[in-house]
Amino acid sequence: MSTQIPYATLILRWYDRHQRILPWRAKTGTIPNPYYVLLSEIMLQQTQVATVIPYFNKFIENFPTLNDLAEASLEKVMAMWTGLGYYSRARNLHRCAQEVAKQSGEIPKDYQALKALPGIGDYTAAAILSIGYNQPYVAVDGNVERVTARLFAIQEPLPMIKPTLAALAKTLNEGREAQERAGDFAQALFDIGATICKPKNPSCLICPLSEVCKASLEKIADILPIRQRKAEKPTKYGISLFIENDKNQILLRKRPEKGVLAGTLELPSSIWSEQYISIEQAIKETGCLGQYQEIGEIKHVFTHFTLKVKLFKLVSDLKLTQVAQDNMWIHSDELNHYPCSTLMKKMIAYSTKI
DNA sequence: TGTCCACGTCT
DNA sequence: AAGACGTGGAC
């Protein structure tokens, strides 16, 4: 007969011996500073602890209280955020401080009120309530997701399984101990995720949960959580024609007002399709009759697809058919006066060098 | 040296 | 409601 020690007990026992010392963290037995918690949690969004530490210290030196932050200029706040990335966090943080200062001056103790503040979403609201106010919320971030997926050996892929993982994570603090030590419990989960249950090479041998962790027992911890391989972006193919006259002007035309690179200038080009078409067909499509020589291939990555374009250069006289009526001749130096995509600049620069 | 990617919030 | 945000770390 075996009795199962609750997860929360194992986690808290470990935390009492192995917790990290962090500048925003309250010393054991002391009341946390909710402003420190809020500031650190905003900084920790998408950013690692080691990166955040010097920024947090600098902010606390300059803005010891939330009121100081609210009264500071946005410029100063932005300047101090420099290098930390995701700058909308800094703008939102500043607005958040101002809203709190304007209201009660106290950071809300209520989930909905917190979420209504700029820059605070599900995760951060739960983190502030648990760590800052010792309320039994489970803040589910990527670390907690990973710990949960391993603890229960969840093999379905993210992001599909995200809601299930969040629901499971929220069962971890059941029991009197974790309810009473909500802040410690939340931070304990983060510490385990960061120092033991790492994304790669998890240290199951020294993990307080190893004997109850399904993934560890099945020796599959290192492959969890499984992520959906994001759909490969399709590749499209096109042919573009580089045509220069004796005044060093380049033949360009305007793309349609809708769709990719709407309304920008382009080299006369075939439609981008699933595979390369022949140069003869591209000539017919564009209406730019003549002899061409292939000069290279340009690769360009859009959000939704990768584009490969074969570049051809005109090596004979040009004869335009009616299809080509809208074409215009532009000198490459004048190009800046027209809307022209990076892709086209790339292609023109390449062609000009040849 | 570049390329890929993290996974919280906002729009 | 998919995509943008921006840095640093992994390969």
TrEMBL record:
Cofactor remark: Binds 1 [4Fe-4S] cluster.
Gene Ontology biological process: base-excision repair; mismatch repair
Listed EC numbers: 3.2.2.31
Family from the record: Belongs to the Nth/MutY family.
PANTHER family documented for this protein: ADENINE DNA GLYCOSYLASE
Biological function: Adenine glycosylase active on G-A mispairs. MutY also corrects error-prone DNA synthesis past GO lesions which are due to the oxidatively damaged form of guanine: 7,8-dihydro-8-oxoguanine (8-oxo-dGTP).
The protein's name in its UniProt record: Adenine DNA glycosylase
Organism: Commensalibacter communis
